[in-house]
Amino acid sequence: MAIPRPGKPVRGSQSGAPIMAAFDLLGRRWAMGIIWNLSSGPATFRGLQAACETISPSILNRRLKDLREARLVERTLDGYQLTESGSALFRHLHPLGDWAIGWARLVADEEE
After folding, report:
1. Which residues form the HTH hxlR-type domain (predicted)?
2. Tag placement on the chain: N or C end, fewer CB within 10 Å?
């Protein structure tokens, strides 16, 4: 299975909008967990597997392949690390994280 490509229909969108292709890629199982764990620096395959706790070796291998094909992760002598583009993505996730905290409060307030 190839990575989602801007300009092509992706899961949840026929438009091919780049943001939808990115959401499709990042919504794959463990993609964000791998990016999160690599944000603090390079990690070996075994190190990533330990950091991601419940990830299977086959899923980790597949996600690393996807993220490498998407040019968000690269392999180095130290293991795997975020590319410049992967690091930029991670920096852009901080505002989304801030929004998510507010959203979580809103949803929790509605449940009470």
Report:
1. 17-108
2. C
Asked, for residue 5, whether it belongs to a domain, the answer is no
**How far apart are the C-alpha atoms of 73 and 57, rounded to whole Å?**
17
Residue with tokens 């990575």: 3
| Domain, as residue range, for 98 | 18-111
Task: Confirm whether 11 is domain-assigned.
Answer: no
pTM summary value = 0.87
Residue 55 forms part of a structural domain:
yes
Give the Cα separation of 44 and 76 in Å (integer). 9
In tens, the pLDDT along 17-57 reads: 898 999 999 999 999 999 999 999 999 999 999 999 999 99
Q: Is residue 8 part of a domain?
A: no
Contacts of 79 (CB under 8 A, 6+ apart): 42, 43, 44, 45, 47, 48
Tell me how far apart the alpha carbons of residues 110 and 82 are, in angstroms, rounded to a whole number: 38
3-state helix, strand, coil in the chain (%, to 5): 60, 10, 30
